[in-house]
């Protein structure tokens, strides 16, 4: 028996998006279940929305109302602790996520082994604990929670406004737009026939279908634990 | 053992929407699997979009591009034969579905036993065969495919522009908007605690979670057939 090569799956993500947190955790959980080479790729959702002419769902009032319930239902389904944000316009639009995503891009360039854990801590801050993700102190605290060394934290913090970092984030965002992205999560499955883009944390059954894998729900190893 | 009362689940639907066809078939398939009293409720998607300030996904260019792939992937997943429409603006926007939905509303009022089968035939016309769904001849052909008697067809056709029919369709649409609808499919699960609205053919795992039922994928009786 020969094993077929792993399929590269890119997750383009921005920690401002709670639905993307679901996809992030699901893909991390499926690493040992699917024949997949998962590539975590920070991008800037604000740039994607601008380039595609798309608008956040909350700009349509009934969609915004529905999203609050939908998020809570999905949080229960995916077993991820989500707390609704009280002042979403201020937190998600005015403050936004640019500094968080630049910090993650710097980590991806200089200490990539911490990318997953710091991303998770930033999501936990904004979407579980209702905490800031743009001030230096916030970034430092997230990195400490992720067990990064102080040297590495300082290094990445000092490099987050370098043109190398800014360019890397811009290029990742443009790459996603080239794949057809108009929001987040954007997943790209690199099949033999070429890249296939999927949008949304509700498309895992279709991703599985494309990859000839089995979608076992949001917690793939639940059964073996029973 | 006492059996708990069936949970009323309303599907608000318009045959102009292919995603709603997926939901329609799934709910019909799950009738014998879930403790559910399924109520099929024709409504007018154009009215919902207007009332909610929402716009069709294809008005954002990259979303429209993505939707073509997403529809085909979902068609494969749900095992429903979808053919993309070549001139969507003409068919979906200009021609629209008002006459089809009035015909279905008249059927719901006067011959409700044919509502499911004629709805299915109208979806098959527009989304499988690329055929018209607004001309009288088209409505007649769909009704004949659904084995309606000629008398009944004539009756429903003659009543589709009555104020009773128009009012019933308008009221169903307004009811859905009151439940928070901004698109289709809109499903309303009537729990003990009150109505819970779900949007989208990708929300069945969450509907199952709400109903304490098991989501067995798009074909619930597949395993028993193997």
Helix content of chain A: 40-55%
Q: What structural category arises from helix and sheet content of chain A?
A: alpha+beta
How many structural domains does the protein architecture of chain A include? 1
Q: Biggest interface in this structure?
A: A-B, 30 and 30 residues
- CATH architecture descriptor name of chain A: 3-Layer(aba) Sandwich
Q: Overall pLDDT of chain A, averaged?
A: 95
Q: What's the count of strands of chain A?
A: 4
In angstroms, what is the radius of gyration of chain A? 17 Å
Question: Which stretches of chain A are poorly predicted, pLDDT < 50 over at least 5 residues?
Answer: none
Shape of chain A: globular
Number of helices of chain A: 11
Write out the CATH superfamily name of chain A: Glutaredoxin
Question: Assembly type of the shown chains?
Answer: homodimer
* N- and C-termini, Cα separation of chain A: 31 Å
- Following the backbone from N to C, one meets helices and strands of chain A in this order, namely EHEHHHHHHHHEEHH
Give the amount of beta strand of chain A, in percent.
5-15%
Biggest pleated-sheet summary of chain A: 4 strands, mixed
Protein name (chains A, B): Glutathione S-transferase kappa
GO cellular component, one term (chains A, B): peroxisome
Catalytic activity (chains A, B): RX + glutathione = an S-substituted glutathione + a halide anion + H(+)
Active site (chains A, B): 17 (nucleophile)
């Amino acid at each position: 028996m020969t094993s077929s090569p792993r399929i590269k799956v890119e997750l383009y993500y921005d920690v401002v998006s709670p639905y993307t947190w679901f996809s992030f955790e699901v893909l991390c959980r499926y690493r040992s279940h699917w024949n997949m080479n998962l590539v975590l790729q920070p991008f800037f959702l604000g740039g994607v929305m601008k380039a595609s002419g798309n608008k956040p769902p909350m700009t349509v009032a009934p969609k915004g109302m529905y999203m609050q319930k939908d998020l809570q239902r999905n949080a229960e389904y995916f077993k991820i602790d989500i707390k609704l944000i009280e002042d979403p316009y201020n937190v998600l639009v005015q403050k936004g996520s640019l500094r968080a995503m630049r910090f993650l891009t710097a980590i991806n360039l200089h200490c990539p082994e911490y990318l997953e854990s710091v991303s998770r801590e930033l999501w936990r801050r904004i979407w579980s604990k209702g905490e800031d993700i743009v001030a230096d102190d916030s970034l430092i605290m997230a990195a400490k929670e992720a067990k990064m060394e102080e040297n590495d934290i300082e290094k990445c913090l000092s490099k987050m406004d370098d043109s190398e970092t800014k360019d890397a984030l811009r290029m990742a965002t443009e790459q996603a737009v080239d794949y057809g992205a108009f929001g987040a999560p954007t997943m790209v499955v690199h099949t033999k026939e070429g890249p296939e883009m999927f949008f949304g944390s509700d498309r895992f059954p279709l991703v599985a279908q494309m990859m000839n894998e089995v979608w076992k729900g949001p917690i793939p190893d639940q059964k073996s634990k029973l």
